[in-house]
Amino acid sequence: MSADDALVAAIERLKRDRNAIVLAHYYQEPEIQDIADFIGDSLELSRKAASTDADVIVFCGVHFMAETAKILSPEKTVVLPDLDAGCSLADDCPADAFADFRAKHPDHVVVSYINCTAAVKAQSDLICTSSNAVDLVQQLPADRPVLFAPDQNLGRWVQRQSGRELTLWPGRCIVHETFSEEALLELKLEHPDAEVIAHPECQEHLLDLADFIGSTSKLLNRTQSSAAETFIVLTEPGILHQMKQRAPGKTLLDVPGVDGCSCNACPYMRLNTLQKLHDCLESLEPAIELEEELRLRALQPIQRMLEMSR
Ligand code: 13P
Ligand code: SF4
Ligand 2 centroid to 266 CA: how many Å? Predict the structure, then answer.
């Protein structure tokens, strides 16, 4: 038995002993996805965290995802393999500065992308993810102005899709802002029949070059449902692992960052490893803890999202 096989066997044993479920985002390393009990986008992972009857949730994703799981399932132990697995969007939107921004727009409905801290969620009327943002914004009363935070690229795309004017918080994802337009254009020239599929966190000039835009789950489904044989994928390349399994035989091309760097890989997601997954299952640390008063305030806009999502 190789060292990796032994580690996987130990994780499986611990999962049974702890009555634990391992949830993983599509951006995680393939070996983590392979051991997960459930893989999904942010919305699907939230739903799973709310409905599971496991005692322990091991969240292989980033901090705001694990925190959302804890908000939805406070009675469960929620552990994150590496507590430093953050998100540039959440970091770009400190709660105090957000409170000042809101105070300048007191009549606005506050819609926050799930990629934010509990302290920002607690100041929001409604949470959205990239898979339901357009639909939820369209459901808001037409006479109410809307403030959208923290991702300005997603916000601009939602604005265009929904026809609603949004006041945007200027946050961005360091991963989705790095894709090179030059590299994308070269790939399009080399593969003229390829379909370009993009996550809405990408910059507008790249989204303008895309044939299909959607959340990670929608991009994954697209590689299965589209007749195209080749896809140029403008999102974090961790998702290629599921795409290869669900659309075998199709050609999947990721797009490098500017200057050919591999900064299209999310550095926060990469902090989680199989060894850390094992260790947190064993020690049940680091665990996500939240003050109950904050949790209850952050819960309301998440519940509203789950109720409004079709
Ligand atoms: P999804 O909701 O599409 O999974 O996106 C989450 C994310 O962090 C994208 O960078
Ligand atoms: Fe955050 Fe971007 Fe990483 Fe997604 S890819 S978790 S938005 S830093």
Answer: 6
